[in-house]
UniProtKB/TrEMBL annotation:
EC number: 4.1.1.97
InterPro entries (UniProt xref): OHCU_decarboxylase (IPR018020), OHCU_decarboxylase_sf (IPR036778)
PANTHER family hit by this protein: 2-OXO-4-HYDROXY-4-CARBOXY-5-UREIDOIMIDAZOLINE DECARBOXYLASE-RELATED
Positions of the UniProt region annotated as Disordered: 75-109
Protein's name according to its UniProt entry: 2-oxo-4-hydroxy-4-carboxy-5-ureidoimidazoline decarboxylase
Stretch forming the signal peptide: none
Record pathway: Purine metabolism; urate degradation; (S)-allantoin from urate: step 3/3
Pfam families: OHCU_decarbox (PF09349)
Residue span(s) of domain Oxo-4-hydroxy-4-carboxy-5-ureidoimidazoline decarboxylase: 22-178
Catalytic reaction(s) noted: 5-hydroxy-2-oxo-4-ureido-2,5-dihydro-1H-imidazole-5-carboxylate + H(+) = (S)-allantoin + CO2
Catalytic class of the enzyme: lyase
Amino acid sequence: MPETTPDASGAAVPDPGLARLNRLSKEELRTELAQCLNVDRWVEALASEAPFADRETLLASADGHARAITSEEAATALARHPRIGEKAEGEDTESAWSRGEQSAFAADTDDASARVQRIFTFAQGEYEGRFGQIYLVCASGRTGRELLADLVDRLDNDTETELSVVGEELRKIAGLRLVKLLEAA
């Protein structure tokens, strides 16, 4: 199976990341995919579709499977995510990705940004008290002010709406991490 991806002109170019994933054993592939989204059903569904014909098909399938995340699956996946503002421990790929995704949150060290971070920490505690779980958001590239505004808005959600939002955020994170996985070749 040729592992290619169309470039901007539509011409097929080799896709080493896709080729690497397609060479993995099922168990190795499951391990790699679980770093993107720790939901067994999602991992198994994608692993069962390997080898992948092209990047677009893989990403579309991953997105489709992630749209069906249940509240129980979201709770399991949340257990592996650090709070916003806390650095993920460990030297594994997933921890490194998490640190990178949150890097904009703590990047600014001026007084105003420090105040935003303190207010965020307080609001995060309110969120955890209200919903009984950590606040999860696709933080990649978002500032502390943007994350604080999102967090405050989400405090008004009912539990069912919030679980739906968490599932959507997990889907976004999985998509970003799957691209990182493909680009790691």
